[in-house]
Design a protein that fits this description.
With about 160 residues, the protein is of the alpha+beta class. Helices cover about 30% and strands about 25% of the residues. It contains five helices and seven strands. The strands form three sheets. The chain has a three-stranded antiparallel β-sheet with strand order 3-6-7, with no helix packed on it. The protein has a two-stranded parallel sheet with strand order 1-2. The two termini are about 40 Å apart. The relative contact order is 0.12.
């Protein structure tokens, strides 16, 4: 049924309109061959997709290495909750890559020399992803720096 909806939405002769897909867990669905095309080309035709994946490994198992990588790069926005598996953390960390951090401090020696230390670090670190609490997430949107988001507790 989903494949048919994607086919009709991407059809050149299809009607104008919007198709919203809310996919709760991609690993529980059968392989959707048109999903990547819907993500990449469907925006112009009114296709909007919100998908949840419980990790990268199930996607790679269902779609293969190349297919899963294509799906992961087709989403413009990624919302990451607490992640414990290294493979999924690495995917989120690589969305922004590395940057150089320079730390400067004065020594306690009589000359008071300035000491600088340069380090290459990930913009998003493992600790950023494993320390998220319930209701917190890290949002990675295309062309914007990552930011932390916290949902207010109900009734507050």
């Amino acid at each position: 049924m989903l494949e048919s909806a994607l086919y009709q939405a991407l059809d050149e002769n299809g009607k104008e309109g919007a198709l919203y897909l809310l996919l709760d867990d991609l690993r529980l669905l059968p392989k959707l061959p048109r999903l990547e095309n819907a993500l990449r080309l469907g925006r112009l035709k009114g296709v909007r997709v919100v998908a949840c994946a419980s990790g990268v490994a199930p996607l790679r198992k269902a779609y293969g290495e190349t297919g899963a990588q294509g799906l992961l790069t087709a989403f413009d926005t990624t919302v990451a909750f607490r992640l414990h598996d290294r493979e999924t953390r690495d995917v989120v960390k690589n969305l922004y890559g590395r940057h150089r951090v320079v730390e400067s401090y004065s020594s306690s020696l009589p000359q008071h020399t300035l000491i600088e230390q340069a380090m290459d670090q990930y913009v998003i670190e493992d600790e950023d992803l494993t320390a998220l609490q319930t209701g917190e997430s890290l949002v990675c949107a295309l062309h914007y720096p990552p930011f932390w988001f916290r949902v207010k507790r109900y009734g507050q």
